[in-house]
Design a protein that fits this description.
Blueprint: E1 2-7, E2 10-16, E3 23-27, E4 37-41, H1 65-68, E5 82-90, H2 96-104, E6 122-128, E7 131-137, H3 144-150, H4 153-165, E8 168-174, H5 187-194, E9 198-204, H6 215-225, E10 229-234, H7 243-253, E11 255-256, H8 271-286, E12 296-304, E13 310-318, H9 321-328, H10 333-350, E14 354-362
Helix pairs in contact: 8-10
Length: about 375
């Protein structure tokens, strides 16, 4: 044991040796106190008991039917109610999902710079005043040659079926790219427009075009290709330019009819599905080449806490061990980025704190 005695003359360090029984005295001349104060410092060799924090064992709950399915009651429509169904189609990576999210006012469809991020048809609803509009966001449509090479024919069929169901079709074109990036005389554009009763042409990404006058010849050329084109809009979904004009046009096109969804509903995707898509979005944003297309996501834990927070456990499934290393990254840098991104997206969407736990697993293992 060491004893420290603080007095007016300084600090006395006295240590007693168990062998000699003597004490050594060290004096610091600077005065630091008026009255003696004794401070005892425990011997480092002496074992002291420290309190250990108890770890709380959390029972992970599986997602129940309430979060795995979407259910609602058909509302009573207001007087003079109007409705419209709209398909959003076009080539991959022209900003269809960004456009849908901007019109509706919140994220209902995942977004990334890569083609074919949207793999299924996504329904979004926009209700304002006496009008309800239901949108179908579809996978990007590729020419027949590229469909067979990439096994994407099922995605094209999803897009075509959505067009047939819709009363109005929106064909989205990337205004920042020259028309020669569109293959085979825009045959595909003609196919898309022919399947819709009425078509509106939307030139997106005009914020990337310095001189908008250069778009006029493009519009004239597209009007010759796109059948039943009633209106042309130049917008930037990313910068929220021209969106209000497009929304006003859609409201004018709505016909008398009952509403299908309650006015507060903006998507028919179950919350588990949205969580899956938010993780997929992070994967597409962070990883390159063919890796994101080989990754699937499965939600296996959906555990609400008493304070309103939500814990979500998900498996990020990859085909082999090599790809598992890529998805995890050095010191887990890649999967950590995906987790933080998806967690932020879900926290904003669900209006509560989400704690996301990702587990990368390979089919091989």
């Amino acid at each position: 044991m060491m004893m420290i005695r603080i007095c007016a003359r300084g600090i006395h360090f006295a240590s007693r040796s168990s062998a000699s029984g003597k004490s050594r005295l060290f004096l610091k001349e600077a005065p630091i106190a008026d009255k003696p104060v004794a401070v005892v410092i425990p011997d480092p060799k002496t074992k002291t008991k420290t309190k250990q924090r108890k770890r709380t064992q959390i029972d992970i709950e599986e997602p129940n039917e309430q979060v795995k399915t979407f259910s609602f009651q058909i509302p009573e429509s207001p007087p003079n109610a109007k409705s419209l169904t709209v398909s959003i189609t076009g080539y991959p990576n022209v900003g269809k999902s960004t456009l849908l999210n901007r019109i509706i006012g919140e994220k209902v469809s995942i977004v990334s710079p890569k083609a074919q991020t949207t793999r299924e048809r996504v329904r979004g609803m926009w209700t304002e005043d006496d009008t309800q509009i239901v949108f179908f966001d579809t996978p990007g449509v590729l020419p027949a040659s590229e469909r067979s090479a990439l096994s994407l024919q099922p995605l094209v069929e999803i897009a075509y079926s959505s067009i047939l169901e819709a009363q109005l079709g929106i064909v989205v074109v990337d205004a920042s790219k020259p028309l020669d990036h569109m293959p085979s005389n825009d045959k595909l554009m003609r196919e898309l427009s022919e399947k819709a009763e009425t078509t509106a042409l939307v030139l997106n990404k005009i914020d990337l075009v310095k001189d908008h006058r250069k778009l006029l010849p493009i519009i004239d050329q597209l009007r010759k290709v796109v059948e039943n084109c009633s209106e042309v809009f130049m917008v930037s979904a990313q910068k929220n330019q021209g969106i209000e004009d497009l929304k006003a046009f859609l409201k004018r096109k709505a016909q008398p009819g009952t509403w299908i969804y309650p006015p507060g509903v903006r998507s028919d995707a179950p919350v588990v599905k949205f969580a899956t898509e938010a993780i997929r979005e992070g994967v597409f944003l962070r990883l390159n080449q063919e890796v994101p297309y080989s990754v699937s996501v499965s939600i296996r834990g959906w555990t609400p806490f008493r304070n309103g927070d939500l814990r979500i456990d998900a498996d990020v499934v990859v085909p082999d061990l090599n790809m598992k290393k890529i998805v995890i990254g050095d010191e887990a840098s890649v999967i950590s980025w995906v987790r933080k991104h998806a967690q932020a997206v879900m926290t904003e969407k669900f209006g509560k704190s989400v704690h996301l736990f990702l587990h990368v697993v390979s089919v091989q293992s």
